[in-house]
Amino acid sequence: MKHKNILILILLSVTLGVSSCDDLLDVEVKGQYTEENYFKNEQSVVDAVTGLYGILIAEDFVAHGDYTWDIASDDVYRAGDHSEDEAIETFTFDASNPQLSAGWTWKYEMVSRSNIILTHVPELDDISQEIKDRSVGEAYFFRAFANWWLYLPYGEFPLITQEDAATANYNKPKATIEEVLQSIENDLQAAEKLLPVTSTAGRINKGTAWAYLTQLYMHWSSYPQKEDKLDLAITVGEKITTNSTYKLSDNFQDNFRQKTTALPEMLLYVTSSQAWRNTSTIYYFSPRTQGGWNFFHPMKSLFDAFGNDKRRLATMWAEGDQINIGNAVIPYDAASSETGFHFNKYTTFTPEGRLSFDLLIPIMRSSDVYLLVAEAKIRKSGAGAGDAEINAVRARAGATALDGADKDDLILERRLELAGENRRFFDLVRWDRTGWVDIATILKNPDAVYHTDLNRVNFSAPKNYFFPLPQVEIDKSGGILVQNSNY
After folding, report:
1. Is the pLDDT of residue 399 over 50?
2. Which residues of the chain does CATH 1.25.40.390 include?
3. 8 Å CB contact between 54 and 11
4. Is the pLDDT of residue 18 over 70?
5. What sign results for the dihedral spanned by CA atoms 364, 366, 371, 374?
6. Which InterPro entries is this protein grouped with (predicted)?
7. Which helix (H) or strand (E) holds 343?
């Protein structure tokens, strides 16, 4: 969290076209400013908001860090060489685990930058109303986005407001879950009012805010006496499902093969390019034999769940599959994976046969919202109530329509549609809370965990609905920040 004097990086590339990892650290600093002297014209505002988008490619945030939470599910094995991930996957961690603090700083950096924009931009005169509204809407959204990705793993955490930033009040106690969710809702509603219906390449729009509101309401509705949020999820979600502006793509895999122009379904995405190698997501999901870093291998239980579903090959490779690597077609080497599978969603190749970084990586898609609306309708009205939304997603995938789809159909559909997109564990948590699933039982399936982890997975509800706060942050607070319950 930042003090009154700030250093702003002027990012000269296109909206999301900034580089990650070492490249991000090498961005040339164009000037050192204070909050009082920086915001002087429209371009300064645009540059500051570009800095918000740029955080999305930070390796310890969207580019890798938050994908790691999904190794706690039955879909993904950690693989790789991050020793701390074993404890996350088996629920044997303590609060000192490095993964717990990996993305914490970046999320608060996004909150800090958003607060600065929200404090200064509304009072500017030398700026068009269109750019002002859009920029303030983006700042509200990204503050909500950062807090959302603090909520999902931690539940309770300190909320840093504009007023806190103005008084340097950063050492705060945790907000309650209700306060956290209310704050996220307020920001997303404010963003929705200001954002345009459609946007230029790389930018968010009203559909993005509506999608995250729908997701918020579905998680909120899993708590006792919060079933009224189901109605809100349906009302907001149908602004996407009934609007051709955010229509589903004609082909499922097209969402993961776009290079320069996003499809209407891609409501939030990160841009990468061969020249800049913007996001390490591609490295982490790709096989080492093809130039990747060989993390996040799909489990056999996920492969089995697909059956004959056509989305399987677009999602993951298995023995017997053929891979077009640009200059040749080769058989998939199942021995290169510790589970026998690799994700295909984020791996493409250049014409010369090298790993390609020309890819728009979706973070939120309309199909996610379709299935959230279907889920809300099933919870409210029973089997069959969500058939229209489920079947829209299935039709696009070339799957047969369902009649009277129930909770188990919905659970399976979300698993198949969103595999590898960092939804599964957090879905399981809210379904466990509502009694739809039993995570502890799911993780006893030998095909859902790596063989050396069998009978070592120590999931316990409600303790492991959330992870502990990073011990380093508790220590720095001097007793103000209190650890999550059960840890």
Report:
1. yes
2. 5-82+94-236+467-477
3. yes
4. no
5. positive
6. SusD-like_N (IPR033985), SusD_RagB_dom (IPR012944), TPR-like_helical_dom_sf (IPR011990)
7. strand 342-343
